[in-house]
Specification:
The protein is mostly helical and 271 residues long. The protein has 11 helices and no strands.
């Protein structure tokens, strides 16, 4: 009789632990992009005012004229505060929509309509209402990032089994108990999925606000150096913005790993 173990192919052990291979590939892709950037600029095929070298870009960090610290802090404040307000408001509104069907029927279409308005078109109005400064930019970040959080969270709160809700109601469970014990835990995968999208949009919203109505921040700095074709500073500003966005996105992923089991997550993001 043939030994079954000899017929079954042996499964190769991964070179890296599960999940780490995805991170390694992602890191390799980033390194490859920077290596290609360096190679193109070192060849001299592209003028420096169009594509500065990585070294010239990094050297701008030591130039006090750009005030990287204060400008980055302003932009980070706009992103994080606007994003935090979007999460709190979006989850609260989704909760109210799940409790009051009449409120959902009246306001949900209105939110959809507002979400279709190009946010840049609201710039002149926001300047009149809030003036130039950080408040307007926080509102931009909030306005752009709230809608995916609201819509996806509302969907998640509706995905609970109706029989389970009827059972809890039969046991005299209150709306708050149903929300806290059943709906909210069940909706967590949807909430974190929407928070990832909102994190990306919050960065975009803050920069749109700084382009339209600001006197400080990384977006404002990019507008200022554009007139002198200082592309090295513009590249550095883009890199810092990307780092802020990656930090925010990574923090959301960390929270998701803590509060949501792997099998319940809605995407295949590396863990």
């Amino acid at each position: 009789m043939t030994d079954a173990s000899k017929l079954t192919p042996k499964r190769r052990q991964p070179f890296l632990p599960e999940g780490w291979s995805n991170w390694a590939l992602g890191a390799a892709a980033h390194i490859a992009v920077f290596a290609l950037w360096w190679a193109v600029t070192a060849s001299g095929a592209v003028p420096a005012f169009i594509l500065p070298s990585p070294g010239a870009t990094l050297s701008t960090l030591t130039n006090p004229v750009y005030q990287w610290g204060s400008n980055t802090l302003v932009t980070a404040t706009e992103i994080f505060v606007g994003y935090g307000l979007a999460i709190a408001t979006g989850v609260l509104m989704a909760m109210l929509f799940s409790w009051f069907r009449l409120l959902r029927a009246a306001l949900f279409p209105l939110f959809i309509t507002i979400s279709m308005i190009p946010k840049v078109a609201l710039g002149p109005l926001l300047i009149v209402w809030f003036g130039y400064g950080i408040t307007t930019n926080i509102f931009f970040a909030f306005l752009i990032s709230i809608f995916p959080i609201l819509i996806t969270t509302a969907r998640g709160l509706r995905e609970v089994e109706p029989d389970l809700l009827d059972l809890v109601r039969a046991l005299n469970g209150t709306r708050w108990q149903i929300f806290r014990k059943i709906q909210f835990p069940s909706a967590l995968p949807y909430i974190f999925s929407s928070m990832k999208v909102g994190a990306i949009l919050a960065v975009a919203g803050a920069i749109v606000g700084e382009f339209v109505a600001s006197s400080q921040g990384l977006g404002y700095l990019m507008i200022q150096v554009q007139s002198t074709l200082d592309t090295a500073a513009m590249f550095m500003a883009v890199i810092l913005l990307s780092l802020l966005g990656v930090a925010l996105f990574g923090f959301v992923m960390l929270l998701e790993r803590i509060f949501v089991v792997k099998d319940a997550r809605l995407d295949g993001a590396p863990t």
